[in-house]
Amino acid sequence: MRQTLLIADKGKTAVRIAKAAADLGWHSFISREVLEERPAGRPRADADRVLRAAARAGADHVHPGRGALSLDAHFVRRCAQAGLTVIGPPPDVLKIINDRGHVRALAGAVGVPVAPGPSGPVSWEDAGAFLSSLRGQAMLLRPVSHRRRPKTYVIRDAAGLRQARARLDGRLDGRLDRAGAASAEAGVRVEEFVEHARRVEVQTAGDGRLVAHLWERQPFRGGTRPPGWLAPAADLPASTRFLLLDAALRLADALAYPGVGTMTFLLSPTRRFFLTGIDPRLHSGHFVTERLAGLDLFATQLRLARGDRIGDLGLEEHLRPSLPLPDGTATVTKGPCRPRTHHRRSSS
């Protein structure tokens, strides 16, 4: 039976999804109703419109793209009730990865380090006490917010903490829902700020039973806007790479992660690393991973959603964090690019 895919996104992302679907013999379409202009503050694609468009066209799969719907557990649950398969993790996994406290708890359970700090939200007074306990080290502060990535503040002293509180409290003038501000009653999340750290992302792919890695990548400035990407990460000893990939695989395995995911870490100058988040979406950095691994990640998403296993994708060796790197280094400094080699196809 030929799969029919509704693409709830536009632009280059939609083109890549449609190309991957065509390569696999799927029919795909984009609904104008789904993507018509929304009021400010509303998601690009509306859940009700997506469900109506899918029902009219007889779609059996929905790709939410890179928008807010890809993180919406309620939307994924509604799609399942309507008989639609969403390309991405199920609601129970989204519930965990959308909450920083849940992510920190998961990391602790599987022995993956996170930046030192309280496990949940604290009061402003407790935030001040935590800052004092750091003995001169800076603190990272995030408001408790409905937004997945609220604005963060680097706090170095008590004066900085007072200034951050004043800024957040000053937003409570009827714009709370739009700005995602936090009140003193809601509390804040705090953790030690890792000085001079660089971001390193590990790409994973899972079939619900086994999880493979596609090595790591890092952003770099290099005078480009947006930043360029490098894979594998620069100046990363083999022993650190092994620990980093192993940590990502343990996290994904604990979630029984289905689909393509990104585990994001901070790597300190002393080569200590800390988990900062888990993301189910494909962003700009995934292109460099495609070039390094010779794999189309959009096609990988679709194949995993239709039930292909890690073995079908030819990724059995990628279950090992000790897998040697391929020859060469992939660099992307702007725009999307196609993988250097074709994605692996099933024999069927």
Automatic annotation (TrEMBL):
Q: Does the keyword Nucleotide-binding apply?
A: yes
Q: Which UniProt keywords apply?
A: ATP-binding, Ligase, Nucleotide-binding
Q: Which InterPro entries match?
A: ATP-grasp, BC-like_N, Biotin_carboxylation_dom, CPAse_ATP-bd, PreATP-grasp_dom_sf
Basic residues: bias regions: 337-348
> What ranges does the record give for the region Disordered, renumbered to this chain?
321-348
ATP-grasp domain location: 104-306
Q: Where is the Biotin carboxylation domain?
A: 1-348
Nucleotide-binding as a keyword? Answer: yes
Family annotation (Gene3D superfamilies)? ATP-grasp fold, B domain (3.30.470.20)
The name under which this protein is listed is Biotin carboxylase N-terminal domain-containing protein
Protein source organism: Actinomadura chokoriensis
Organism lineage string? Bacteria, Bacillati, Actinomycetota, Actinomycetes, Streptosporangiales
